[in-house]
Amino acid sequence: MMSYLLVLYHSRTDSVKNMAYEIGDAAQHDGIDVKIRCFSDDSDDLAVTIDDLKHCAGLAFGSPTRFGMMASSAKQFWETTSDVWLSGELIDKPAAVFTSSSSLHGGNEATLLSMSLPLLHHGMLLCGVPYDVPALSSTKTGGTPYGASHVSGLTNSSQLSAEELSICQSVGARLAKLIKQLQ
């Protein structure tokens, strides 16, 4: 069985990319191999393949908020995964979602919920951010129980706050722990 965490993202301004790397680094720190992939060729990272998805042991899926929904490239990818769904290859694999918006009420939670839908259809075990993560209760920027989030603000900053970093790291560590337990 493959034992890597697939960290799959779309990012135009590096906010979601920065989150992807924090999640991946935390999982690697806990002994899990990580593959970081994106949805298109507009990044230094490799574009995701269906095989990357089929063979992962867990998934962290990130997209910027687009009017309370995932980016169209992310949705377009999920629409190509019917064969994976029919074969049940993602059933019982842990997954988490993460996002970024430019404003505090920019649709982060709606985006995270909409991103969860294809994962649930695939039978994945969706995990959020539990309230034992201290940064979840102290953040003034991003972070929700539905998944990690970032708020870039009026300056469109891709720099994550200390709380956002902590929440991303907790998501990576939690996915690593679950992958180990399920294997």
What characteristic shape results from the CA principal axes?
globular
Strand count, sense and barrel status of the largest sheet are:
6 strands, parallel
Looking at CATH, which topology would you report? Rossmann fold
Count of distinct structural domains: 1
Task: Write the CATH homologous superfamily.
Answer: Flavodoxin domain
Overall residue-averaged pLDDT value: 95
Q: How many β-strands, per DSSP?
A: 6
Quote the distance from N terminus to C terminus.
8 Å
Quick tags:
183 residues, alpha/beta, Rossmann fold, six-stranded parallel sheet, 7 helices, NAD(P)H dehydrogenase (quinone) activity, flavoprotein
Compose a concise summary of this entry.
The protein is α/β, with parallel strands linked by helices. Helices cover 40% and strands 18% of the residues.
Describe this structure in words.
With 183 residues, this protein is an alpha/beta fold. It has one domain: Flavodoxin domain (Rossmann fold, 3-Layer(aba) Sandwich). Helix content is 40%, strand content 18%. It has seven helices and six strands. The protein has helices at residues 15-29, 50-54, 72-78, 82-87, 108-121, 134-138, 162-182, and strands at residues 4-9, 33-38, 58-64, 94-101, 125-126, 148-151. Strands 1, 2, 3, 4, 5 and 6 form a six-stranded parallel beta sheet that branches. It starts with a strand and ends with a helix. The model has no long low-confidence stretch (mean pLDDT 95). GO terms for molecular function: FMN binding; NAD(P)H dehydrogenase (quinone) activity.
